[in-house]
Amino acid sequence: MKEHFLTLYHYETWANEKIMDSIQNYSPRDQQILRLFSHILSAQTIWLQRLSLQPTIQNAWQVLAVEECKLQMQQNHQLLLEFLENTHDFFQKISYKNTKGEEFTNSIYEILTHLFNHSSYHRGQIVFCLKNYTQDLPVTDIIFYLRKDAQKT
Fold first, then answer.
1. Is-above-0.90 flag for pTM?
2. CA pair distance 146, 138, nearest whole angstrom
């Protein structure tokens, strides 16, 4: 299971880098692009804090500047990798409060699955927004990542 989540982690970093490149080129024209990527990163931060049993930031929709996004993305990627490398029981339950203060309990497996799916969903929205500015859209589907990775071997 660890191998599965490490693959998703590497896909996540690859896809986020592609989106970050597009944001640096097109976000000045469309703040929705920056808003969505900021949300991906803020939500990741919140989930990483929950997984580490730390107090969480509460604003999942704060808009970060481009440089802040880049820094937050790098920090999240590092924290996520460290978490995955140090996790042995993906079925361990984590109790947390959502942004409304409601209490929930989910397994690490469920939380990580949500974290990766959430990012993919919003990256799709970003690509949709980018259609207004370029025909050279970033391709961030996981199958393209897996094909790219398979070509290296």
1. yes
2. 15
